[in-house]
Structure formats: structure tokens, C-alpha cells
UniProtKB/TrEMBL annotation:
Organism: Candidatus Gottesmanbacteria bacterium GW2011_GWA2_43_14
Protein name, UniProt field: Beta-lactamase class A catalytic domain-containing protein
SUPFAM superfamilies documented for this protein: beta-lactamase/transpeptidase-like (SSF56601)
Beta-lactamase class A catalytic domain mapped to chain residues: 97-298
Source taxonomy: Bacteria, Candidatus Gottesmaniibacteriota
Low complexity bias locations: 52-67
Keyword Transmembrane found: yes
TM region(s), chain numbering: 21-39
Gene Ontology biological-process entries: beta-lactam antibiotic catabolic process; response to antibiotic
UniProt keyword Transport, yes or no: no
Amino acid sequence: MEKMNYPSFGRNIESKNSRRSRTYLGIIVFLILITIVVVNKAGQVNLVSPMAESNSSPNENKSEAPPTNIEVTRNLDLEGLEKEIAREVAKTQGTFSVYFYDLESGRNFGINEQMQVMAASVNKIPILAALYYKVAKNELDLDRIIVPQAKDIRDYGTGSIQYDPPGTPYSLKTLARLMMEKSDNTAAYILASLVIGLDDIQSLVESWGMTQTDMLSNKTSARDIGIVTIKMYRGEITNSALTREMIDFMDDSDFEDRIPKGVDSQVKVYHKTGDEVRTVHDAGIIDLPGKPYFLAVFATDVVDATITKEKIVLISRIIYENLK
């Protein structure tokens, strides 16, 4: 076979193309590496201080204006309200406890309201009440500084303290705020177990008439939570200045996806949610001007948490539309 002699310029063109290809490849690799670094850093920022309950993000949970497509029956009397809510509860999987109390008239109704259930984070309400009760008695100082030790950190569930640097100091007031606004489990543990004492909290809740609340096993009922929350709102736990501060920690939390979502956005809701496996709760005071009321909706044996939350929103909306 005849040997072909390629012109030298052909080899020069080939080498230039190769260099150009290698240059383009290098640029592409560089851009890919930059993208990976940026994405990785963004992920690290999200891990620093998550403040979401369970599997939800704070932004997803923040309350918006009530959905306009919710149609509810209006002009119901108290008996009609109870029947309407009972019908809605019956249509949803799970076991519901509902307790409504009108703070002006004292009218109330309940559905399984005295059924003892796992409280989840709702029992942070009596912890808050016990703290401010003792502050008013000069037994505790809200400015006292606590530096959590490694053994104090609850490295599960909600809260930001578990992600803060070791040795970070917190005042008791800051722990109270984080416990309610961020549902911080470490803050709740420190206040309940190390600062106040579970035995002291138990004695207080019993003195307040909460006969179905067990702080050690974390059990309560919708009616019991109503008792303590109403006392807090009415200023029966601590003095007026501390009452204002205490209940303000229960407004505009990171978890506004249930009762608050069923009322108009300008209405304050002082409440606490609770979430556990197959458990979805919310309870609080809806500060409707001239017509404040308490509402608790607890759901256990939950099959679908999203559907259950939507049902709590609906129950909240039914009551709100018939009271406003």
C-alpha cells in the first residue's frame, strides 16, 4: 500500500483544534466545579439553624390570608356549631378532640375534650405558664443566663439551639421565646427539667385545675390546655406586664398552618402546635376584638397529616365565621 504523506499544515490544524477543545473542556470543568461549590455552600447554610417543625419549613407554615374557596355555614348557634364540627370530624380519618370556649359569655362545647392524649409540644404552654408564675413570685429571674452543656442538647425534632455553637449562652427569657416561637425542644427541656422542675410544674398544673395533664409522661387533654391558656390570657398566672410578654411569645410562631390559617390575618392568635407520629395538634386564644375565644383541636391516630391540618383550618374557619 502506498504510504500517504500528509501535509504539515494538516497536523498544525489538528493540534490547534485539540488545544482549543482542551481549553473549552477546562472552562466547562471549572464552571461545573464552581456550581458544585455554590450549591454545597447553600446546603450548609440551611443546616446551620433550621427552625421548622418536623418535615415542614417555616415559610411553608406561615399563615396567609384564609383560603377564599372555603365555604362554611354561617349564622349557627352554639348547638349548631357543635353539630357542624362533629360532622366534619366524622368525615376525617383519625380521632379528634375539640374544645371551644367563649371568653366573654362562658359558653362552650367539646368533642372528646376530656380525652387524655399525647401532648407533643402543646405541653410547652404549661411550662411557659409555670416559668412566668415563678418569676412573678421572685423565685426565678428571666435575665438569668444558662449555658447548655452537651448532655442538655435535644438533638432531634424542632428548635435551633441544637445547631448553635457549644457554649452559647441564653437568658431564661430567650429560652422561653425559643420554646414557643421555634418550638425548641432543648429550650423546653432546660426550662422544665433543669430550671423549674417537672414536679413543681405538675403541682402547679394540678392547682390550676388541670386534672388530666401529666408532665412526666407528656399527656394532657384539650380541656386542660384550655384551662391554663385562658388563665394566661386573663392575667391569672402572673402580673400584667409579664402576662403581655408571655402571651406575645405565642403569637406569630414558625408554625401558623392550622388555627391561624382559618381566621383573618389581622386577628392575633396566641397558640401552640404539637406534632408527633400520627399526632397533629393546635390550641390557643383567637383574640377576635370584643369576642375572644379559645379553640383546641387535637388529632391522634392520624393517617394523613396534611389532610388533618386542612381539617383543623376548616374547623377554625367555621367557628370564626360564626363569631365575627
